[in-house]
Amino acid sequence: QVQLVESGGGLVQTGGSLRLSCAASGSIIRLNAMGWYRQAPGKQRELVAAITSGGTINYVHSVKGRFTISRDNDKNMVYLQMNSLKPEDTAVYHCWCPYYGVDYWGKGTLVTVSS
Fold first, then answer.
1. Residue ranges of the chain whose pLDDT lies below 70
2. SS in 3 state form for the chain?
Protein backbone atom coordinates (compact mmCIF):
# COMPACT_ATOMS: atom_id res chain seq x y z
CA GLN A 1 0.00 0.00 0.00
CA VAL A 2 1.34 3.38 -1.02
CA GLN A 3 0.53 6.47 0.99
CA LEU A 4 1.15 9.95 -0.30
CA VAL A 5 0.53 13.09 1.74
CA GLU A 6 0.74 16.54 0.21
CA SER A 7 1.26 19.87 1.89
CA GLY A 8 2.12 23.43 0.99
CA GLY A 9 -0.93 24.67 -0.84
CA GLY A 10 -2.62 27.96 -0.13
CA LEU A 11 -3.76 31.30 -1.45
CA VAL A 12 -1.27 33.41 -3.36
CA GLN A 13 -1.45 36.42 -5.64
CA THR A 14 -0.60 36.33 -9.32
CA GLY A 15 3.16 36.21 -9.73
CA GLY A 16 3.70 34.63 -6.35
CA SER A 17 5.33 31.34 -5.43
CA LEU A 18 4.48 28.21 -3.51
CA ARG A 19 6.35 25.03 -2.75
CA LEU A 20 4.39 21.82 -2.55
CA SER A 21 5.71 18.80 -0.70
CA CYS A 22 4.75 15.15 -0.92
CA ALA A 23 5.69 12.65 1.75
CA ALA A 24 5.71 9.08 0.47
CA SER A 25 5.41 5.97 2.58
CA GLY A 26 8.39 3.70 2.86
CA SER A 27 11.26 4.05 0.47
CA ILE A 28 9.27 3.60 -2.72
CA ILE A 29 10.39 6.76 -4.40
CA ARG A 30 13.90 5.42 -4.86
CA LEU A 31 12.63 2.95 -7.44
CA ASN A 32 9.66 4.77 -8.89
CA ALA A 33 8.72 7.66 -11.01
CA MET A 34 6.84 10.33 -9.08
CA GLY A 35 4.83 13.28 -10.18
CA TRP A 36 2.23 15.92 -9.63
CA TYR A 37 -1.23 16.07 -11.15
CA ARG A 38 -3.69 18.90 -10.82
CA GLN A 39 -7.42 19.19 -11.26
CA ALA A 40 -9.19 22.48 -11.67
CA PRO A 41 -12.96 22.82 -11.17
CA GLY A 42 -14.81 21.43 -14.17
CA LYS A 43 -11.64 20.19 -15.84
CA GLN A 44 -9.94 16.87 -16.25
CA ARG A 45 -6.98 15.94 -14.12
CA GLU A 46 -3.72 16.67 -15.91
CA LEU A 47 -0.15 15.63 -15.29
CA VAL A 48 1.85 18.74 -14.42
CA ALA A 49 5.31 17.33 -13.82
CA ALA A 50 6.99 13.96 -13.45
CA ILE A 51 10.42 12.73 -12.48
CA THR A 52 11.69 9.21 -13.11
CA SER A 53 13.83 7.19 -10.74
CA GLY A 54 16.78 8.10 -12.96
CA GLY A 55 16.02 11.80 -12.73
CA THR A 56 14.47 12.43 -16.12
CA ILE A 57 11.94 15.24 -15.83
CA ASN A 58 8.95 16.24 -17.92
CA TYR A 59 6.55 19.15 -17.59
CA VAL A 60 3.28 20.04 -19.20
CA HIS A 61 3.91 22.90 -21.61
CA SER A 62 1.93 25.44 -19.62
CA VAL A 63 4.27 25.29 -16.60
CA LYS A 64 7.65 24.97 -18.30
CA GLY A 65 10.06 27.59 -17.01
CA ARG A 66 7.89 28.30 -13.97
CA PHE A 67 7.61 25.01 -12.07
CA THR A 68 10.40 22.74 -10.86
CA ILE A 69 9.96 19.18 -9.64
CA SER A 70 12.57 17.59 -7.43
CA ARG A 71 12.99 14.60 -5.18
CA ASP A 72 14.89 13.69 -2.03
CA ASN A 73 15.17 9.92 -1.91
CA ASP A 74 16.72 9.94 1.55
CA LYS A 75 13.72 11.76 2.97
CA ASN A 76 11.11 10.04 0.74
CA MET A 77 9.95 13.43 -0.43
CA VAL A 78 8.97 14.95 -3.74
CA TYR A 79 8.60 18.69 -4.22
CA LEU A 80 7.04 21.07 -6.69
CA GLN A 81 8.39 24.60 -6.67
CA MET A 82 5.89 26.86 -8.39
CA ASN A 83 6.93 30.36 -9.41
CA SER A 84 5.23 33.10 -11.40
CA LEU A 85 1.87 31.63 -10.55
CA LYS A 86 -1.14 32.49 -12.67
CA PRO A 87 -4.87 32.30 -11.95
CA GLU A 88 -5.10 29.37 -14.38
CA ASP A 89 -2.81 27.41 -12.04
CA THR A 90 -5.62 27.31 -9.49
CA ALA A 91 -6.39 23.66 -8.80
CA VAL A 92 -6.10 20.83 -6.35
CA TYR A 93 -2.62 19.38 -6.74
CA HIS A 94 -2.15 15.67 -6.16
CA CYS A 95 1.07 13.76 -5.67
CA TRP A 96 1.25 10.69 -7.93
CA CYS A 97 3.15 7.44 -7.88
CA PRO A 98 2.76 4.57 -10.35
CA TYR A 99 3.63 1.46 -8.36
CA TYR A 100 3.56 -2.04 -9.79
CA GLY A 101 1.03 -1.08 -12.40
CA VAL A 102 -1.27 0.79 -10.02
CA ASP A 103 -1.59 4.57 -9.91
CA TYR A 104 -1.65 6.08 -6.45
CA TRP A 105 -2.59 9.65 -5.61
CA GLY A 106 -2.61 11.65 -2.44
CA LYS A 107 -5.73 13.49 -1.30
CA GLY A 108 -4.38 16.72 -2.69
CA THR A 109 -3.60 20.25 -1.60
CA LEU A 110 -5.49 23.29 -2.88
CA VAL A 111 -3.64 26.05 -4.66
CA THR A 112 -5.57 29.24 -5.31
CA VAL A 113 -4.04 32.06 -7.31
CA SER A 114 -5.88 35.36 -7.11
CA SER A 115 -5.80 37.87 -9.94
1. 26-27
2. CCCEEEECCEEEECCCCEEEEEEECCCHHHCCCEEEEEECCCCCCEEEEEECCCCCEEECHHHCCCEEEEEECCCCEEEEEECCCCHHHCEEEEEEEEECCEEEECCCEEEEEEC
